[in-house]
Amino acid sequence: MLYSKKITKALLALICVFVCLISFSSLTAYADERELYLGGFAAGFVLNTTTVEVVGICDVLTDEGVVSPARDCGIKTGDVIENVNGININSVSDLNAALCIPKKSSSIVITRGGQQLNLTAEPVTDKVSRQKKLGLLVKDSVNGIGTVTYIDKTNGTFASLGHPVADQSKNIMGINGGTIYTCAIYDVKKGLRGNPGELKGSIESDYMIGKASKNCEYGIFGEISSDFNTSDLRKIKAGKINEVKMGKASIYSTVEDNKIKEYEISIVKVDPLNKENRNFVVKIDDSELIDVSGGIVQGMSGSPIMQNGKLVGAVTHVFVNDPTRGYGIAIEKMLNSY
């Protein structure tokens, strides 16, 4: 879950490091007084979306035989169900409720490729559950692995990723809450030129970190669990963008052994006014990290960037054609967004 235009063209491509325009004023007095703790630990994100997407078409066993109303009416995988029988569909439970309306035919509004289509289907009664069904496999949540940037004990919140979770059209996903859990990293797919790497981990659903409430251009934010233990985390101060210098810095991330480690980097470009939140270009210098992961990999989104003992930003993207380089967002943007 990181260059000027000339450099971007030369490197051809970059990706968000997730398995997502506030002006650069100085940090407020309140932000300076926040009780911040350095993150750098991996987390598993389960986010409830505000859309219901079709991920498969299936058959329904009825008293009269096997049928698929969804297939018959033209619904396809990837469609987003917007409305059924006049009811806006924001969750699977909304869909089930709409199908319970006693009608022979159901009017269905879907979005496909950016266009809305109006379809009509006849729901059938499942032989076992006796519920009305269309023969759809749908989802109303997304999950992935990323990194928590900091914990703010002053207001009981967390910040992570440094970029939004987006859909296939690169639009920021609306979320209706969600949960983040601890995550055990069990393997690393090493990043190579043209082939981004990835942290592979298992979401530990028995150990909640907090509740997600906001997905925006600056990351995923939410409330930290009241019993989350910060005793092993480092208390820090936030640095201002005008304090950041090109040169040595470090990132904190969990890549192996499920331990937060500090890795050496260089900040090779500072761009305070970048409108796409690409405020830093960073280069991985740490031979240990390069040996293990090749550099920046998916799942490291949100890894905090430190310079001169202060938290100054978070890693957000990796260059596909050079996994040792990536973009970062200034911490001021994250602090001022939630």
How is this structure best described in words?
It contains six helices and 23 strands. The protein has 338 residues and is mainly β. The protein has a 19-stranded mixed β-sheet that branches. It has a two-stranded antiparallel sheet with strand order 4-5. Strands 10-11 form a two-stranded antiparallel sheet. Residues 1-13 and 20-31 have low confidence and may be disordered.
Question: What's the layout of helices and strands?
Answer:
Blueprint: H1 5-11, E1 14-16, H2 29-33, E2 36-38, E3 42-57, E4 60-62, E5 65-67, H3 69-73, E6 80-84, E7 87-88, H4 92-99, E8 106-112, E9 115-121, E10 124-125, E11 132-133, E12 136-152, E13 157-160, E14 175-189, E15 198-216, E16 219-224, E17 235-238, E18 247-254, E19 260-270, E20 280-284, H5 287-293, E21 304-307, E22 310-319, E23 322-330, H6 331-335
Parallel strand pairs: 17-22
Antiparallel strand pairs: 1-22, 2-12, 2-17, 3-6, 3-12, 3-14, 4-5, 6-7, 6-8, 8-9, 10-11, 12-13, 13-16, 14-15, 15-16, 18-19, 18-21, 19-20, 20-23, 21-22, 22-23
